[in-house]
Amino acid sequence: MKKKVLIMGTSPRVGGNSNALAMAFEDGAVEAGHDVERVTLAGKKISFCTGCWKCLDTQRCVIHDDADEIVQKMKDADVLVFATPIYYYEMSGQMKVLLDRANALYKVNYKYREVYLLTTAEDDKPATPVNAENGLKGWVSCFPKAKFIETVFAGNCLDIGAIKGHKALHEAKELGLHV
Asked: Which residues fall in a coiled-coil region (predicted)?
């Protein structure tokens, strides 16, 4: 079954290692015949959530910036994929702000059922992405029709391009193939 896949690169670095994972996932999903869109947060204007809760009534954020448009794309996707560098054992700030701004989805009829996480970090310890994964799982738990599926982690990836040849690129592509 053809799915609509939305991949969100949340790194502030254009061409960063987590974006390479996003592209590998995209390659697999496209090869599998899915409709794929990749959005990069770098350079986007995304303001902090103000906690006004108006989005629960209007089903749209009252702040009209790039996050509002991205959140609407999230609502209509079957699969959400977040790609983030790990900073201080946590997801990027850009990703966290986007998740907060997605509060408008709480009471809407969202389509997504599967959520994936692609991560990169300087550290290569297996526990490195755990906090970011738990944060995303917490967000997903607020949406009962959605399920967190899997994380791909690439360690030893500090400098741009360090991910070249990393086994996680293959893992991300395989995930994309089997969405």
From this structure: none
